[in-house]
Structures are given as C-alpha cells and as structure tokens.
C-alpha cells in the first residue's frame, strides 16, 4: 500500500512557465506529487509575481514543515548562489533577488533550478539514469538544453551555467551526409552555428528547408521519415550527423555513462535510436548498448525540484 509523504518529507516546488505557475507539495519518490495548484504567471509585474508565488505557497503549506524549502523550477538562467532567474518569457524577474525576497516573505528557504537541470536530476535519481554515477540530461525540444548530475547531485556552474551544449559555434560547415557547404545560422545568443539553430524542432525544419525541400513541420518530417520518404530520410540523416557531434563532445567532456533525453524530439524513441547510432560513432568510450535513453519521469520539473529541496534541507 502506498503512503503519502509525511510532513518531514514534503517540499514545495513551483514549475514556472510563461503562462502558468504550477505548485505542489511533493515527496521525492516516484509519483509522490501532491495536488497541483496553478495560477497565471504575472510576467511583467514583479510585485504581482511575488504575490502569486506567496499565495500558492501559503495555500499548500498545510502538512509541510515551516522550514521545508520552496524550489522554483523554470526555463532560463538560474543562478543558485545569487538566487536570481533570467527568463526571456518572464521579463519582470530580470535582476531581482527573487529567492531572497520570497524567503523573507514565507520564512522558509527558497532555491532556484533551471528546468533542464530539474529534468536531469529527476532522471538521474529516479528515471533512466538511476544507478549511473554521471548522468547528462539532453533536452531536444523546440531548442536544445542540458544539465549534468554527478553522484545524484546537480552540478551548478558559474552564474548558473552548466550543460549548455546547445550554444557555441559547433555546426559542421561541410557535413558528410550533405557533401557540400552548409550556411551557419545566427543563434539567439549572438553566435553562429550553435546546435540550438539546427538540433531542435525548429532547427530540424530549418535543415529540411535549407537542403532544398519544401517547408514542413518537424512532426511532418518525422512522420514521413517513418513512412520511408527519401527526402525526410536525408534530412534526418543530416540532422543526426550534425547533432551527434556536439553531443559527443558533451559526453567526452563530462564522462557521462548515460544521456537521458527530454523534450518533444528527445522522447521520440525511434529518432533517439537513430541519433544514438550516430553518437556512438563519435564518442571515445565504448558502450555495449545505447547511451541515449528517453526520459521516464512525467513531471520532471516538480520531481527534480523536490529532490533538490531535500538535498537543501539536509545541508541546512
């Protein structure tokens, strides 16, 4: 019989998106996520943002110890040391010490966690990477992101940056699959040729168009690929070659023995098997089986946040 987590095990976790804030009192075991409450995200009003988070936390505080942390999981740059969040879709957070101010309001510790780091932590402790010492989490969705977990703890880099394999001028100028020069595209970060420009869903669509095919959505391309369409097959082969190169570099640098993949494309098992074959040709270590494994945890932001919260509690 499954028992609900005790107050001593519960953590408050907020999954903050550009449209809604979702918060729950969670445990750290599989499925130990309580009832989720939500409200619209005040993206342009910082005072209203603090009010929304405070109201949600107070509404969920019954059965949660007063000293239990609140973890804020969101996309963007999350600096754990400064307690700040820089998120393009929530401009009111820019430069604000959100963790400190919420902690003062609520009387409990508050931590911040990038959603890719939350995914990597959830998968390392409870999901696809369980039992592995070094786990790399690769988000392959609309764009490219990542996180690194070592010995069950997230690696928190300088300024909140770690695992960002999607940025850096890495695009192969003359891919073997194409056999001719391919233009490097300017990335939103300001550089040219980042994996973010060709590796995610929008990047896959861009590659398809750049190689002379009619415009198509990533879903249309992958469906046609499964159906044996030769144009889609060429696009997928080019995509797998190009994306496996920066991912191989990430694996070689971190020493990860497994890569848990998330995001829309990252949860596609057939697509990840294709990328895995290209990846294993390019990494230094040898693996008997696949190194890429689609993630297993459904609510990774809440689960990863709960795990981080318990680690924070133990260190206090």
UniProtKB/TrEMBL annotation:
SUPFAM superfamilies noted in UniProt: Actin-like ATPase domain
Gene Ontology molecular function: hexokinase activity
InterPro entries attached to this UniProt entry: ATPase_NBD, ROK, ROK_cs
Domain of life: Bacteria
Pfam families reported for this sequence: ROK
Protein name in the entry: ROK family protein
């Amino acid at each position: 019989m499954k028992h609900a987590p005790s107050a001593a095990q519960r953590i408050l976790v907020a999954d903050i998106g550009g449209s809604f804030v979702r918060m729950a009192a969670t445990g750290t075991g599989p499925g130990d996520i309580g009832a989720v409450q939500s409200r619209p995200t005040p993206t342009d009003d910082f005072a209203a943002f603090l009010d929304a988070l405070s109201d949600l936390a107070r509404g969920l505080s019954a059965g949660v110890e007063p000293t239990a942390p609140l973890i804020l999981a969101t996309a963007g740059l999350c600096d754990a040391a400064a307690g700040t969040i820089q998120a393009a879709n929530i401009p009111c957070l820019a430069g604000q010490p959100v963790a400190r101010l919420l902690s003062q309001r609520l009387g409990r510790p508050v931590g911040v966690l990038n959603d890719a780091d939350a995914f990597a932590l959830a998968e390392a402790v409870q999901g696809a990477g369980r039992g592995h010492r070094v786990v790399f989490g690769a988000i392959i969705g609309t764009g490219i992101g990542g996180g690194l977990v070592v010995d069950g703890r997230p690696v928190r880099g300088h300024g909140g940056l770690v695992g960002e394999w999607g940025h850096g001028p890495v695009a192969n100028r003359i891919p073997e699959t194409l056999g001719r020069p391919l233009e490097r595209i300017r990335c939103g970060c300001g550089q040219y040729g980042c994996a973010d420009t060709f590796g995610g869903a929008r990047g896959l669509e861009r590659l398809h168009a750049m190689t002379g095919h009619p415009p198509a959505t990533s879903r249309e391309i992958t469906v046609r690929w499964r159906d044996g369409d030769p144009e889609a097959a060429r696009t997928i082969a080019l995509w797998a070659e190009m994306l496996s190169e920066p991912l191989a570099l990430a694996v070689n640098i971190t020493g990860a023995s497994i890569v848990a993949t998330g995001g829309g494309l990252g949860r596609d098992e057939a697509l990840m098997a294709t990328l895995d074959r290209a990846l294993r040709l390019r990494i230094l270590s040898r693996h008997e089986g696949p190194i890429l494994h689609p993630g297993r945890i459904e609510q990774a932001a809440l689960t990863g946040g709960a795990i981080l919260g318990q680690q924070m509690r133990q260190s206090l």
